[in-house]
Amino acid sequence: MAMFGYMTEIDSIEMTGEEEIEAEGDDMESLLFHFLDEWLFVFSADPFFIPRKVIITEFDKENFKIKCKGYGEMFDISKHPQGTEVKAITYSNMQIYDNENQHELFVIIDI
Predict the structure, then answer these.
(1) What pLDDT shows up at residue 17?
(2) Which of 69, 70, 85, 106 has the highest Cβ tally under 10 A?
């Protein structure tokens, strides 16, 4: 996810651990918001996990639920270059385009 690219150099993250998150929403925009917010919480709270790779394991488009696993490690300032702090996910100008065989998401994050 590009959000973590703001926080550190993705290439510096080793996939030695995993974390799983679940998110729900009332529509696709709120699902996207809660999905990103859950990952931001996992990074911001102990054990400060930062994924290099995220794999969606369940995606229920009708009930707006998602489960996924992130593969990475605990953020370590001596190993991972510190980038820009992401403070929050926003709904501001959030856009989801679901075209045939091409999906695009635009999210503004608060830094």
Answers:
(1) 97
(2) 70
